[in-house]
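Researcher: Let's do a round of design. I'm pasting the structure tokens now; please hold your answer until I've finished.
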């Protein structure tokens, strides 16, 4: 007969075995619970972080404009090429027109890294004008060349961009011997106003003048505006120049008189109301038509007697 101590040991063994078998289940549930809580915390933190960053960014107004694709065929021959030259009012007040011949500083037709983009089928002489600040050594050179077709202008802009892009290492050299200077090609004006456009900044590694230029197409005209000075010009200087030129040559897109969507122009409505009173003078033709009707009724009895005379024979 088993002793009471043996029964106690048996009961103890059963109890310990049952509690041991429940421990893995409790540990697994606890781990799942902790993982779920951690996942919820991560999701909430991500949402808060996204809102915290996204809200300030949504309030930032980026000063970026999209380039306009001009209808070059429609613009061909629609303006005087002289309007594409830089005007005195396009520049700050310290610039004055220069009487000097600055043709050697012209960009159109010049060589780039051993390549010379050609202006095909030019019509007339190239127009050129220059402005300077005098002692400050700042110069703006403006060039305009009309060509036979818009395609010729477009090909030149593309060839010029390709010539600069093909410069090995973005560098070319000027001068010879001791005067040989390396010139580095840097980005030009930001935010091009039109799609057919190229702009670069040329910076010498030694003492010398920095050049920044923009070249673009308007119809059958190639437009070039170039700044030459000791340092790069302010962005707004050439930006105002190019936008002013475009306002004169493509006013439907860049002019200040361009219509606003959703606004009906008042002058058109006024002219239509002034045209209406003359149309109220239509009654006189109706009176003349009435007289013609009376004449027709008086002529009818005169033609009636001949048929009545035939039966009497």
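Researcher: That's everything. Go ahead.
Model: Designed sequence:
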């Amino acid at each position: 007969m088993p002793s009471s101590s043996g029964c106690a040991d048996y009961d103890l063994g059963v109890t310990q075995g049952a509690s041991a078998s429940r421990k893995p289940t409790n540990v697994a549930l606890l781990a799942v619970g902790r993982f779920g809580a951690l996942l919820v915390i991560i999701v909430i933190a991500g949402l808060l972080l996204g809102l915290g960053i996204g809200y300030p960014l949504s309030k930032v107004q980026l000063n970026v404009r999209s380039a306009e694709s001009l209808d070059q065929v429609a613009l061909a021959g629609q303006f005087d090429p002289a309007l594409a030259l830089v005007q005195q009012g396009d520049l700050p007040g310290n610039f004055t027109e220069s009487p000097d011949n600055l043709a050697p500083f012209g960009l159109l037709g010049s060589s780039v890294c051993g390549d010379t983009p050609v202006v095909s089928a030019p019509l007339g002489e190239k127009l050129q004008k220059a402005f300077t600040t005098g002692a400050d050594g700042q110069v703006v050179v403006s060039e305009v060349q009309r060509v036979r077709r818009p395609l010729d202008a477009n090909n030149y802009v593309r060839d010029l961009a390709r010539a600069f892009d093909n410069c090995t290492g973005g560098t070319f050299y000027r001068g010879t011997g001791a005067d040989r200077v390396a010139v580095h090609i840097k980005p030009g004006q930001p935010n091009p106003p039109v799609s057919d456009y190229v702009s670069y900044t040329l910076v010498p590694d030694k003492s010398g003048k920095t050049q920044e230029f923009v070249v673009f197409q308007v119809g059958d005209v190639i437009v070039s505006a170039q700044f030459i000075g000791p340092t790069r010009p302010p962005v707004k200087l050439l930006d105002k120049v190019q936008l002013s030129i475009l306002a004169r040559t493509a006013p439907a897109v860049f002019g200040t008189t361009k219509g606003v969507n959703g606004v009906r122009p008042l002058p058109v409505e006024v002219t239509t109301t002034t045209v209406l009173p003359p149309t109220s003078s239509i009654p006189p033709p109706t009176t003349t038509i009435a007289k013609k009707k009376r004449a027709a009724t008086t002529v009818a009895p005169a033609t009636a007697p001949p048929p009545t005379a035939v039966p009497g024979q």
